[in-house]
């Protein structure tokens, strides 16, 4: 079966500074791929290339077999299929939680207000926040905000969900609620690519773990392989520095 | 004291010139209602061009804004008002005045909106685009509302300035409030009309000043 | 019968707006006007800023009656169009035997307006400084005056420089308003010259003169804004 997402020889540079040196990655449908690595390794850039928030200089990004880096791609359609959850949530402060979730439904998918609210509430219930539908982001905790962020992407019924350090900006006691939602998503069969430092989560929930360093994938494998028997010296260094070994 | 009242607050004259001044006030309001919305739209357009466009456009908007902020509005008004006939174009007074003001106000509003747009975190645009909204939709529904909210005190402050600016139109004899007051003063040999006009300006604008004070003091609360 | 070909539109435009002969005739009065504008501007800035700061400092004393008048003053002179104030001073005061030259009327009016805005800006700046700063300074034995000068004002200034710069530039451009009461500043000279010559070139010269005078200020203002970036 064709992988949901495939990266082929992806290269990205900011002027003279090369950030991705030819990355190849395959994300099978329904699996959770976890990307780890030191800061500056290019993990976020890699993730952002998947929905073209960053545009690679060369290489291909195939979503469901179609190369999205080619011209002629409908960007807005693409982004409904590949959703993104941000480290700083990026909720619209001037709209309620429900408003945040339904904006794209109304304006992009052209649903009626009633239909949009219906779908929006469904998405909010998947993250356990239907009772906060009419609350503004400013009145929500960090964990709740992030879950609304997830609901906002979910409402569009994407094929793939990208998570860019989803819990890094949260207080420790709020992290659990977000990870719980992510777990449930995985169990429901969503294809997910996650950049994060939550190694404990990776151990139990990831299907595949990828270690990046200096713009390249250095080692990848099952969580057990990566965390219990790391091969590459840089990976070992990295894990030791995080107290994972 | 009596003399002071007779000179500056002459009730007789006040009642005589009141209707004439009221006409002038009406023109002032009309001019404001024309220039303010157009200026807002123009300013937003300039700010968007600078914010969203290529680098050369950003420079062009900075030049435009700085140029018209450096130019005294009265000079601009006179230039347009007296200069246009030299070009052989016949233009009604109101439109020449409005055009002159528009160039000035769109640059001031443009500067305010620029700051507003820059105050919205980049992540907002990214989040909106990531859900499939196109650039225009993201700007309209997500970025611009926040930008406007963030600079609301400055927008109101600027609007206050624009309304005060209309007094300049008296110089080219547009029959607005100050103009009519000066005519009345010349006719009655008494400054009461001007005092009355000043009071009318105060009645119109003092509430705005109060509102502005309250807004400004609230937003300078240190977090 | 026509002896010369009719002037093209461009030629007509140039000779109406950019006529070198006409320009040469009025260079000297124009320079005089520029000098006056600059002098007036500097006077306004000096008195306006000092008066505004003084009023703000007075307001700190929290004397109810005084504050009432300060706030009323600030409100009134922020609400009135500067031109109205100039005209009031120039035309109204002679009626009570207090005649005023065009320069004095313009200078006084603009100074009062600048003082009003300055007072409000300084007041807002000082309000933004946490009470704790006063308390800390006083707890180390600094008197109220010393606290103000060494602790409060330096911090307030940082916040107030950008809006103050903007406002000062805006009001100083008001020197052009002096032309309405026949002050021989740039606009007045250019309008009179244009009428006299039947040509718009002096007006253009006046416009250029203003740009020369004020664009440096605006650029300076922008630089100041970025340097003292005011974080909310």
Secondary structure elements and pairings:
The complex is a heterotrimer of chains A (245), B (223) and C (232).
Chain A: E1 5-14, E2 17-27, E3 32-36, H1 43-49, E4 58-63, E5 66-67, H2 75-81, E6 82-85, H3 97-107, H4 113-126, H5 142-154, E7 160-164, H6 172-187, E8 191-195, H7 199-205, E9 208-213, E10 216-221, H8 223-228, H9 233-241
Parallel strand pairs in A: 3-8, 3-9, 6-7, 7-8
Antiparallel strand pairs in A: 1-2, 1-4, 4-5, 9-10
Chain B: H1 2-8, H2 11-52, H3 55-70, H4 73-86, H5 93-118, H6 122-130, H7 135-150, H8 152-165, H9 177-188, H10 192-219
Helix pairs in contact in B: 2-3, 2-5, 2-9, 2-10, 3-5, 4-5, 5-7, 5-8, 6-7, 8-10, 9-10
Chain C: H1 9-17, H2 20-60, H3 64-79, H4 82-92, H5 102-127, H6 131-139, H7 144-172, H8 186-197, H9 201-227
Helix pairs in contact in C: 2-5, 2-8, 2-9, 3-5, 4-5, 5-7, 6-7, 7-9, 8-9
- Distance from first to last alpha carbon of chain B: 51 Å
CATH architecture of chain A: 3-Layer(aba) Sandwich
Report on the biggest sheet of chain A. Answer: 6 strands, mixed
Low-confidence region ranges of chain A: none
Mean pLDDT of chain B equals: 88
Largest pleated sheet of chain B: none
| Number of separate strands of chain A | 10
SSE pattern of chain B, N- to C-terminal: HHHHHHHHHH
The helix-and-strand class of chain B reads mainly alpha
Most extensive interface, chain pair and sizes: B-C, 54 and 56 residues
At CATH level 3, the topology of chain B is: MetI-like fold
Percentage of helical residues of chain B?
over 70%
Give the assembly state of these chains: heterotrimer
Q: Helices and strands of chain A, in N-to-C order? A: EEEHEEHEHHHEHEHEEHH
Calculate the mean pLDDT score of chain A and round it. 91
The number of helices of chain B is: 10
Can you tag this structure with a few keywords?
heterotrimer, A: about 240 residues, alpha/beta, Rossmann fold, 6-stranded mixed β-sheet, 9 helices, 10 strands, about 35% helix, B: mainly alpha, 10 helices, about 85% helix
